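Exercise 7.
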Amino acid sequence: MQKTSRTRQLDAVLAGFDERHVRSLVAGWRLDAGEQKSEVPVHAHRLGQLVFAASGGVTCEAPDAVWIAPPLRAIWIPSQTPHSVRATARAQLCYLFVQPGAVRLPERCCALELSPLVRELILDMAEQPWDYESDGPVGRKALVLLDELARMPVEGLHVPTSEDPRMRRIAKLLADDPSDRRTLAAWGDLVAMSERSLARLVRRETGLTFGRWRQQLHLVTAMRLLADGVPVQRVSEQLGYESVTAFITMFKKAVGKPPARFFADLAAPR
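Solution. The predicted structure, written as tokens, is:
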């Protein structure tokens, strides 16, 4: 099946996508998130899915974590994984759908750093019809893309989540107001647990200490806001940091670079 339009609005993805029409190893779309933030609610595909942010940012919520892909990064969503997708305003995305077992990538969602070659192959495949010959030029490019994707480094841009109702309540409150600086003991009082019991719960459910888990939520929130063009000063204020310097120190410790350098390097050719 050949696509009727090479660029689609994000909110039309579910309405217009029938994965039964995908017979090739890889099929793609280029997507425009439009002037407003866009979201595709929870769904799942038989096919594996790669969401590449050519510009702007994209967030994927899966059963065990929330993943963020800033510009020029991608999120891998394995076959049959329930997930939702949220894009920043004016984001330019590429969706690739991959046949199960066609690529050697993790069996759980992950964020991927992409080489310039892989970025260009993704952009090219997103422009191709879905009925290309497997032994033709496009089919050979698809094989190269799948081989290269398997070599891409996995990044830790995610927040582990939990089905525990107490954890979900805390996570929702922190997502609604990431500047909330309540102590672990205060959070324990809120969910009727002792400080020690809550600390054990967080560690068991996420593999992180409460402080590290909250910092990871701050990092993912910061990535999303910065990718949406929010100035560093405002991001720092929204996350409740006492100063921009404190926020930049946290960001640099987490990803190895201050925010301005991180996003500048994303766009720079290697």
